[in-house]
Amino acid sequence: MFTLAGRRVVIFAEGSFGPKTSKVATSYLRYRSNDCVGVIDSRLAGTDISSILGYGEGVPIVARLDDLMAEDPDVFMIGVGLYHNQLPEAWRTQIKQALSAGMDVVSGLHFRLSDDPEFSQLAEANGAIIWDSKDPPEKLATSSARAQELDTFIAHTVGSDCRVGKKTTAIEIALEANRRGLTAAFVATGQSGIYISDAGVAVDAVPADFIAGVAEELVTTAAVNHDWSIVEGQGSISHPAYSGVTLGLLHGCMPQALILCHELNLKAHKGWPDFPTRSLRELIEIYEKVAGYLRPAKVVAVSLNTADASAEAAIDAIAAIENEVGLPATDVIRFGAGKIVDALQKYSDSVRKFDR
Question: pTM value?
Answer without folding.
Answer: 0.95
